[in-house]
Amino acid sequence: MSVADTPTLLGAEMLEWSDASAGSPVLAELLRRTIPQGARVLVAGPHDADLIDAVAARTTALTCVLRGLPDAVALARRHPDATVYGGDLERIPATASYDVVIALAALDPLTPAGATAPTWDALLDSLIARLAPGGTLLLTHPNPLGLHTIACSHPCPPGGRPAAVVAPERAEGALLPEPRAFMDDAQWPRPVGVRPLTAEALRAALHERGSATVHLYAGYPEPYRPGVLLDLAAADRPEHAALAGTPTTRQVFEAGLGVRLAPAWVAVASFGLAAAVPTPAVPSASPPVTGLVGDGAGRWCVVCEVGSAGRRPVVAGEPMRDGLLSRDPAAVGSVTGGRTLEEALLEACAAADLVAVRGLIAAWAPDSVFATLDNVRADGGRLLDPSWAWGAEVAPEVVVARGIRRFVTRLLEAGGRHPWPRGYDAERICRVLHAMARVPGDAATLEAGLRLEAEICSSTEGVPLEAVLERLRRPGRGAEAPALAQAVDRAAVLEEQRRWLLARLEQREAALAKRERELAAVQAKLATVRDRLRAVRGSTTFRAGRAVTWPARRALRILGR
Amino acid sequence: MWSDAVLRRGWAAGLRDYVVIGAPWAYLLAMEHDPAPAVRTGTIWYPFHGFEHAALSGAHDRLIAEIKATEPGPVTICLYWMEYQEQAIRAMYENAGFRVICHGYRGKNWKDTEPEFLYRQLAELRRHRRVASNRLTTAIFYGVSAGCEPAVYGDPMELVGANPRYGDPGRVARLHPELVGTAPDPRTARQVVATELGLDRLAPPAELRALFSWE
Hints:
By secondary structure, chain A is α/β, with parallel strands linked by helices. Chain A has 17 helices and 15 strands. Chain A folds into three domains: 8-169 and 193-287, Rossmann fold; 341-481, no CATH class; 491-535. Chain A has a twelve-stranded mixed beta sheet, sandwiched between helices. Chain A has a three-stranded antiparallel beta sheet with strand order 13-14-15, with no helix packed on it. By secondary structure, chain B is an alpha/beta fold. Chain B folds into two domains: 1-22 and 198-215, no CATH class; 34-197, Rossmann fold (3-Layer(aba) Sandwich). In chain B, helix 7 packs across helix 9 (186-196). Chain B starts with a helix and ends with a helix. Chains A and B meet through helix 11, helix 13 and helix 16 of A and helix 10 of B.
């Protein structure tokens, strides 16, 4: 089909299906470094619009294949010049070959429900078969034993992902039905295949298929949306623990397991003899840096190179601004991290060390809106990232309220252990922390802090303010599927409530049993008294007495009438 | 919860959701400054007592003889209200030449509880140089924290029909053997007592208000 903005249907396309896409500013940067100008590119599987835009900026020979029809339609509309296929990858005309094949959403979402399901290795063969000599494959391989499956710091089921509802803007009278129920394909039965369990097995699989050079990167913290990509040769250096972000990840790096437990490995594999082919050399063949780190969400993200000299923005662009919020990429600085006050606090919370929590939070003296606990070093309180700014005066106690709210939200959303009763909601923990910080935390201050955090999050995450407010008021308790840690936490709360209710029930039943015993005793006493009364009434003496007094009683009754 | 150890014991018993804030006594100590430290004399002796649900078996006369043989100065005997009301028991201690006192009623379900109990105990403890008992009890902890030298000796007596789950007799003495004897090291005692009473775990007023929703 040659009609622009309409996908070419290959067959087996899924009419009511939309996949969650892969992508992050760091992946986009990797693509910019890997795709030669003007190369023929095949993007296989669901990828973020930003990522496709980055590819389209480097080439006009862009081909995409998506199994979900709504996704294919949306992509075809966004890139009318690209060739967009909807359906089964296997059915792409065999004559077509590409200089670069991109599968950063892994191989699973390439198989439509209606097509024959190939094994993982067969799918890999199929992708490599599309490469022109000297071509490059970019592949994300989620680690089946990745930290995300063990620690569950981010909700992301292994083997597949919940599909997001991505309703494409559709023209009047479109034939497509509205996408209805979207579900997780993690539980699809899949044919057994050889799925690499280690980075080295992945490298070996690519070499076996003819790859001359394989560069591997460890992706953190999420398999399909990495914020950090570290060259495998350098990933296990302890200093990279600083990039990791969460205490668990830090421990993983400090234990030298950064590669082994990476949520995903991203491979850049060159095939054939690049020297014999007159296509431009792939820059990634010699990575100049140990890694790429994306800091901040969406359009606020500043991608930095990480090397021995610290970090440095890849592109020092113009300052960004949205309302009162602004960010100057040039001010990001070369500090690659370090232990944050938040990490120290999380540790103290997990150990229920209230004295340490008090000490840490009392020592925290934020002098700006962005001196939040996660942006301040534990040693000395220096800012990690001074590039953010808020264009209005904020009262010091509201700055503290925002910082505390942010900490509590992150603590509860990660399902982290803390020393306060589980019945305490975010608001109450905030109040306790305010008391510990010795900063008055009345209702108005807490609300002002909450609103400030919500406004900033709404802008940085591109989410409506009301939705952010809802999330902040009940962190980790939203309608979305809970992460393992949250599920465990909720189960514990329910267990606690069950225990309490059972104890109460037992108490009430004991009280009831006691009352019943008392009642039975009283009734027995009553029965005895009645028996005695009956015996008295039946006696000859009583009857004789009644007979004697009868006339007098009769007379009294008549007179009384 | 008074201390981290109690919190952990609670966990081991299947209880959850507590916050360690130190013993109420620790707050009393912090609030009630010693106005004019008097010259401390003698010993305040707390005989282990029975309570409303368990009587005590043991010989008071043997205990009295041991106290007399051990204590160098005047002795104040502080009896539990039940024993204080028993003329016979009270008379035994009085006849031995001891001053006999009682800090007040224990009460039940917050009824008839003596609100000044701990205040009275603190005032008495601050008057004495030594605090002693035949069991390692909170009275010893309170005494040490109020500046007394501790002593634990004499027939520990036994509760009639005590529940073995609480480890009676002997569990507490095995836990802190360093506090048992006629003159244990006061410095060691102060360290143990600080931990047991959670003296360094006190929550500041604002935090307590937030924890208990007193605002």
